[in-house]
Amino acid sequence: MSEPELNIWEKAMGWRKRQMVKSQINEVSQKIRNDTIEEVAKEIEKMTAFGQVTIDSFTVYIRNMKK
User: Which of 10, 23, 28, 64 has its CA 20 to 30 Å from the CA of residue 45?
Assistant: First the structure.
């Protein structure tokens, strides 16, 4: 393998590694987002200012925001 071919191969491996890291970051950030949304929904379920049907509607709406 000549030197230019090796450089192209090394660059391709670097691109793939960056792609994998970005994918992992996206997965982690989605998990954090979903966990936060679930926490908000649970806290809203504890509220007593509205009727139970309204609270249930709020929590369904909030939980549908998960990705």
Answer: 28
**In this model, does residue 2 exceed pLDDT 80?**
no
Range of the domain at 33: 16-63
Query: Position of tokens 């192209």?
Result: 8
User: Is-contact 30 67, C-beta < 8 A?
Assistant: yes
Q: Which helix or strand (DSSP H or E) is residue 31 part of?
A: helix 3-45
Residue 55, pLDDT > 60, answer yes
Q: Does position 33 have pLDDT exceeding 70, yes or no? A: yes
Q: Which residues contact 67 (CB under 8 A, 6 or more apart)?
A: 30, 33, 34
CB 35 within 8 A of CB 63: no
Q: Is residue 41 part of a domain?
A: yes
Q: Two tokens at 37?
A: 């949304």
